[in-house]
Amino acid sequence: MSALRILTLFGLCATACAEAQSLPRWQQSPEQIRSTASQVRAGADLTPQAWPNFARVAVGLSFDVDTELVWLEDTDMQSPSTMSRGEYGARTGLPRVLALLAKYDIPATFFIPSMSMELHPEMVRMIKTDPRHEFGFHSYAHENPLALSAADERAAYEKGIELFVKHVGSRPQGFRSAAWDLTPATIEIVKALGFAYDSSMMADDRPYMLISEGRESGLIELPVEWILDDWPYFQLDWADGQNSMRNADDVYSIWRDEFDVAYEEGTMFILTMHPQVIGHRYRMKMLDRLIEHMKSRPDVWFATHAQIAAFVSQSNK
Ligand SMILES: [Zn+2]
Predict the structure, then answer these.
(1) How does residue 5 score in pLDDT terms, banded at 50, 70 and 90?
(2) C-alpha 251 to ligand 1 mean position (Å)
């Protein structure tokens, strides 16, 4: 075992790793590259033998209600018109999403930057109308943790949790990083702040244990995937020649097939959407069709992410 590997295992590699990572890739040793690749790893598959009431699959619908904050990261995207795109999520998209969930009588998880709650406190009241819905933590103001030191990252989350508690009335159980980007320090910070699960990583389709710095973190991962996110399909990107303005039928067939295989495998289906993206009329018709399809199959468990993480944790004790 190399000295760097030993340092990494004991969480002492900050300086050594930084030096190794600053070298051109071709000059790095296998140990140096491995230390970068394995800062956070997937541990055991935690899929339970059976889901509650012997359901075949757990379905967790999540909505990242980023409102204006997702645009404020970019200093070129702060015009009133761009802000109105975020406002659409709070004002128009979210009520449509909540009405659809009520139509099918299913719960969901809402990951909301705490500052979005401050800008739109009416969203919290709307979501609370159905007490089954879960509020998840999604940063203070959608800051990208990669731009922060470990100390600042922790301070930002502490500030965000304080604001979250002011609006929601309790601490969050679930963490989802803004832009799904984690730093090497994120898992340890999130664990120390008392979260039960993370939902930002992509090493599997099934729930798994997060390994951080070579050790089981105790944090359950409910993995996400860009395939199962509305943003890359639908969010307008001029640089991409508007390829992102996809036909809803294309996206329906991808998501339906993803669900069907999850059903066959007896695992889990986590879908991430944004009310400012999915909340447009023709896309909501597609989501309605998808939920109808999932509801037409027997033994599907619709649950919040916190319920799935709690069941997974209980089943693996
Ligand atoms: Zn977000």
Answers:
(1) very low
(2) 20
